[in-house]
Amino acid sequence: MKAIKVQALSKKYGEKEAIKGIDFMVEDGEIFGFLGPNGAGKTSTINMLIGLLKSTSGTIEILGRNLETQKEAIQAEIGVVPDESNLYPEMSGIDNLTFCGSLYGMRKHDREKRALELLKIFQLEDVKHKAFKAYSRGMKRKLTIAAAMMHQPKILFLDEPTSGIDVASARQIRKMIEDLHQKGTTIFLTTHYLEEAERLCQRIAFIVDGKIVKTGSVETLKASLHDQSGLLLKLDQNMANLKQSLQEELKLTKVEEINERSLKIVWPPDQELTPLFTFFRQKEVHILEAKRMEPTMEEVFVAITGIEHSEEKGGES
Amino acid sequence: MNKGIALLSILNKDIRNYYLKPPNISWGMIFPLAWTLMFVLRSETEVDLIEILPGVMALSILFGTTSMLAVTITFEKKQKSFERLMLAPVSLYSLMLAKTGGAIIFGILNAMVPLLLGIALTGLRAINWPVLMGAIILIAVTSTFLGLMIAVAAKEVFEAQTFSNFFRFPMIFLCGLFIPIQELPALIQPISYVLPLTYGVDLLKVAVGAEGILSVFLNFTLLLVFSFGLFRYSIHRMERNWMN
User: Fold this and answer.
1) What is the rounded distance in angstroms from the CA atom of residue A153 to the CA atom of residue A174?
2) A96 Cβ under 8 Å from any chain B Cβ
3) Cross-chain Cβ contact A53/B80 below 8 Å
4) Shared-domain flag, residues A162 and A203
5) In terms of Cα–Cα distance, which of A198, A211, A140 is closest to A173?
6) Tens of pLDDT, residues B39-53
7) pLDDT at residue B44 in the model
8) What is the distance between the alpha carbons of residues A19 and A11, in angstroms, rounded to a whole number?
9) Maximal C-alpha separation, chain A
């Protein structure tokens, strides 16, 4: 059984078609990354999957159930961590958790026990009686995730879980995601941190302008950039004046200056290195170090979406 | 899943977070008390006092329920915590009944202040209690659902407050509380009959021994129709505006 199965899903806001008939599947127990530039349709898709937004057409099946007809049964099995916290600022950490547990019909004793367990896991025991509004950003994020985990959902939707929080909290959240995965929870993750997606996700789908343009494992996505694979060269002298001739003579698609004496060039793994060495020998430049560079997820993102990732960071998802 | 736990928990949370806060308790007590005292001071006899009781109770309920509900829902919507509720595995109808339950109880308790004062001052011997209590409950329900309709239309808390006044103040003058409907200009009279408070006030008047315009049965029926209609319309608007 697929954890999530989406077919021909579309969403129109007035005349604007935000989601254009997308199809994808999430396997049971996998961490599925859903990436794309700002305004590509990530949040609209998530909101449709969790039942907060009605689709214009298409079908959504979660854990084998149709969302249209069995929304309540589905909502009982999923947990949602939105990009912005949705807990009650005036209520304490523990009260927020027990309240969220009660929304899923948990009895008083069970929800109190579970709340204490999660507060311990997220190291929030010391602040459990503090009002949520007094929490730091990292603590707020952790409590929001804990709230979504109260009823032990089978699928957890995480929208930018580590966005804008301190390194220690982000590491803790990533560790928690890995632990949940180990225990068999299916995770649907959106993030702006591509290294995070690379590290955590088994498969990633890229959405651009309301369409899914690519889906695959990190390895297959990187392999699709085989021709973009690069070499990092450390040289014994400044290469600034030779950069252009290097690009022209060897017909290189990309020469990137990392610093005065380091260059990154596109050089597919199966391409012979002799012309490169000949070039440098002729110019009396010595190669001190040559290192094969696999395409990064950022390069994969740029190649697939056509948008520089640096423009994306910190923006709306 | 035990949905009762979820719904009671929402009601309990709202009562603790909003209605039991000192400013709201004082508002709920002082506002009806002030209305009652204002009219008591003007009353010369016990009969006068009983006559003004329906008006004071109706106003206390109307102001208590519409303000609170419109503001709390708009506030929760703005700070996103309302989304948390919408993710709960309960139907939107049940969720909104739980959400409005607190305001209905608050409205009923608001009406108790002038009622208890009336009992203390006059003994209220000739009261038709079943009609009085039924009217109080249904005025609280319709006013709360009116507040819900306002909350669904408003994006900001201040908008909710403005919309509330837009509905409330004309209602006070057109529902027959101060000016009998028959004495209103003929062009305005139809407006009175589309206001739920008109039928609630009519019932309250009957309950204290005055003459009503419509029969008790018809008043109750119309209030139930308004309750159902306002609630259904608000849910429809929520689905259309918030989930589309």
Assistant:
1) 18
2) no
3) no
4) yes
5) A140
6) 777 766 665 677 788
7) 67
8) 5
9) 79
Distance CA A140, CA A150 (A): 15
For residue A75, give the nearest of B79, B81, B88 by CB distance. B88
Classify residue A315: in a domain, yes or no: no
Mean pLDDT for the stretch of residues A210-222: 91
CB atoms B5 and A54 under 8 Å: no
**pLDDT tens-digit profile of A225-240?**
777 778 888 988 887 7
Contacts of A76 in chain B (CB under 8 A): 1, 89
Kindly list the residues of chain B whose beta carbon comes within 8 Å of any beta carbon in chain A: 1-6, 9-10, 13, 17, 79-81, 83-91, 239, 243-244
**Which of A53, A86, A107 is opposite residue B81, by nearest beta carbon?**
A86
A30 and A100 both lie in a single domain: yes
A60 touches chain B (CB under 8 A): no
CB contact under 8 A, B1 and A104: yes
pLDDT of res. B87: 95
CA-wise closest residue to A9 among A40, A63, A54 = A54
Chain A nearest C-alpha distance from B239 (Å): 9
- A129 is a domain residue: yes
Kindly report, residue by residue over B196-207, the tens digit of the pLDDT: 999 999 999 999
Q: Model ipTM?
A: 0.86
Residue where the block lists tokens 């929001």: A144
Whether B122 shows a pLDDT value over 80: the answer reads no
Q: Could you tell me the CATH number of the domain that includes residue A288?
A: 3.30.70.100
User: Do A121 and A236 fall within a single domain?
Assistant: no
- Give the dihedral of Cα atoms A84, A87, A92, A97; nearest 10 deg: -110
A142 & A129 share domain: yes
More confident residue, A56 or B160: A56
Structural domain including A277 reads 226-294
CATH code at position A219: 3.40.50.300
Our CA-based measurement puts residue A57 at a distance from the nearest CA of chain B, in whole angstroms, of: 12
Domain count, chain A: 2
Partner residue facing B91 (CB), from A50, A72, A147:
A72
Question: What is the rounded distance in angstroms from the CA atom of residue B191 to the CA atom of residue A281?
Answer: 95
- Chain B: nearest CA to A270, how far in angstroms? 52
Give the model's confidence band at B84: pLDDT under 50 very low, under 70 low, under 90 confident, else very high.
very high
